[in-house]
Amino acid sequence: MDPPEILQKKLYFLLEQLQNMARDLPPKYQMRLPYELLSSLANCLLNDTVFEIVKGLLEIQHVTEQHLYQQRLQFINNQKMEEHEILNQYIGDPDKKVEELRKLMIKQKEELKQFDMGLVIQLDEKVADQQQVLEQAGVPGFYVTKNAVEIKVQMHLLDFMLRLSKMTLPS
Questions:
Q1: 119 neighbors 71 (Cβ within 8 angstroms)
Q2: Given this model, what pLDDT does residue 36 score?
Q3: Are 72 and 65 in contact (CB under 8 A)?
Q4: 11-23 tens-digit pLDDT
Q5: Contact (Cβ atoms closer than 8 angstroms) between residue 33 and residue 25
Q6: What is the mean pLDDT of residues 82-90?
Q7: Buried b (16+ CB within 10 A) or exposed e, 47-67
Q8: pTM for this one?
Q9: Model pLDDT, residue 80
């Protein structure tokens, strides 16, 4: 356990860094990061566990995004295989081939739209999970919300924490 003077130095350092980072944001986000929130966050970050939680969530997010990306590539690949089947099926009938391809393209466009909407829902669920984990860990500024501006503020706070986790704190 650090002596009180060192904790005080760390707290001042963290708060100063958070204030500097917040100053670099557009005004509409700055106003959502009052001194009290940054001060509470700095205090919370004296506990290294919060940095570990944030790094873990980032890792899970990268794995999830990669998995969803692979699913999308597989889906598109399956659609291409359908196209090749039609190309091979109607070799002697170019008019029928064009007609069937046109119908397939319309169908595939809608299927891809539905697939992508499913991916967005999964990503939204992941965001809510992250918000809940950080809220339960007592990290100021985090709560479950679907408000785009509030989510963007939380993304900035996550970025701040990741940047701080790479800095050497005073000792």
A1: yes
A2: 97
A3: no
A4: 999 999 999 999 9
A5: yes
A6: 93
A7: eeebeebbeebeeebeeeeee
A8: 0.84
A9: 97
